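Assess this one:

_____
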Amino acid sequence: MPPPKDVVKIAIQMVGAIPQLIELQQTKPLASVLKDVCDAWSLPNAERYALQYADGRQTYITESNRRDIKNGSILRLTTSPDQEAEQLYMGIQSKNVDVKTDSLKKLASLSQDITFAQEFISRNGLKQIYSIVEEGNDTGEMLAHTLKAFTELMEHDFVSWENLSTVFIKKIVSYVNMNAVDASIQQLSLSILENMVPTSRLLFEVVKKEVTLDRLLTHLQTTNAQLQLKAMALLIALLLSATDAERQDMMDYLREKNIRQFIHKNIIHSSEPLGDEMAHYLYVLQSVSLNLCEHRMKMSMDPYSQEQRDLLQSLRQTAFESEGEVAAGTFSTERRRSLCAKEFRKLGFLNNSNPAEDLRRAPPGLLALDNMVYFSRNTPNAYSRFVLENSSREDKHECPFARSSIQLTLILCEILHIGEPCSETAQAFYPMFFGQDHFFEELFCICIQLVNKTWKEMRATQEDFDKVMQVVREQITRTLNLRPTSLELFKTRVNALNYSEILKLRQTERLHQEETLAVPVLELREKLKPELLELIRQQRLLHLCEGTLFRKISSRRRQDKLWYCRLSPNHKVLHYGDVEEGVQSPPIESLPEKIPVADMKMLLVGKECPHTKEKSSGKQNKDVLELAFSIVHDVEEYCLNFVAPTRYEFCLWTDGLNVLLGKEMTSERTQTDLDVLLSMELKLRLLDLENVCIPDEPPPIPKPPSNLNFCYDFSQAEQ
């Protein structure tokens, strides 16, 4: 008798027949299983039939995926993929409009299945789809089904996008560029072009030439949210596939068209909530825009470049023009050089005789010079006040403008991740980025004045430079974490977070740490831990019961497809299945796939996961590695693969799954939550001991009294 894992109990349905309940032996060839099923219903020609799931995506059962069948699964006997492909291949060529429309509609649905897609493509079915599009006779619903079927068939990567004809591409482009076209057709056309762009340089150039940025901006400004999303997706695909020079030109053009202000007003602050997909695209647009600074950031100053020397001299001239620039014309060369060196020293350059040396370090390279020049030209009063105020202070207490600017530029580059590749899953963008042109430069202007303010508050000297910049980094980071919606709000909040506030925050954190290090408190912490860990376990399981929306990500592009996973209320079964965009919390009954918790063997994370091994190990996939986890179930060959939308979700899911497996919770979030709960509980327990010094050792127990005659005698009092 085969082991239990090789036998699954399932139901098989067929229209007009009583369902069969069978024990499917996984070691038995599928053709033999089909013959037995057909014989039970007296059906001839078993090779014309196939099994598929009755619910969900209705995937065909094959030898390669039959191990995914679980106990209790409901299958359906249906026409085999090759027979279905042949019928639909003939149907889409029919002269009867209704037959053709129904065939294309069914084709669009079945094309999601890889087995059917393979059969249809092998019959040169894509050629017929090309013909329908290229001839251009069909419109409306029929065309929408055709484009949907094409998209699904191409998703399986059996055919290269480079095989598409010029006529086909131009037809797709025409649907994007025409006004009098149904929105669903434009959405599908934009999606097809988005898929084309990353596959080859030639296709990128064709799409970039045929679909103008003006046309994409028109779609972005529509009220149709899905059309807006697809237009943004194509714009991002073009930006990511462009060369540095092309990307710069595109971003310059978008800046001219005030795309940031439109996004800030009509997308970020729209009445409709921002979806995950759009949030990701806005993050990428922000990242691409900020990474335009990378070239200057990595370029050291060339002391022989006249243009760069002129920029450097302009800093000195703007600050000290009124201090004898005219009189300097009468000085000798040596005297003029000495005067320049003195002024560069007042500007805060370490090497005042050759200030270009200060800018040889890359990063921040020439980006620091650009920021200083921008500050001096766009806020000349603030610039002059900064320089002159510090040049009149004592030598020890002057805040060096140039040195501070160079270090501040480096800090901003690190905080904003300039020069780092875009994450495939991140959605964290700064709303204020889209509300301001020249965002990086304007942010620098606010922060360099913050440096001067903090320097004075700290009464710093040159020896305190690193301490000041550390405080400034903390001020900027803490304020950015508040997600201010505009630079003005950022300026207000960062200036309110002065040095004394930073000291208070640090002192609070330090006191909290010190009071929790006393021996009696540590003992109390250990006593409270088991109870609080159980509370965290319950919270993790509750989160799994609520479920999470995950995205399917391939190495080719960020996928639009979504799937949902949640734990049953009794904590015995994981339910999952594909869902449509916009579905927030599907009922557990609508998720067709399931994994019994008893069948779960182990949890894999990061590089151990099978779906991360399939990907390249480049920098761009670093974020995927950090968010990937897999559940191994039944036997080790079968895994359910996840890529969490955020690090927070990753921690909660891996913790919850470890609880189900009877293992310790290992995520960093567990420790953070435990620390917060312990802190709250300790504060409540120690409330009555405020301002009381807790000794390291318990006080000694006094000796017992020599007699116990001090006890009150109640019997005598009653008499």
Q: What stands out?
A: The mean pLDDT is 86. The first strand starts at residue 7 and ends at 13. Residues 519-546 form the longest helix (28 residues). The two ends are 90 Å apart (CA to CA).
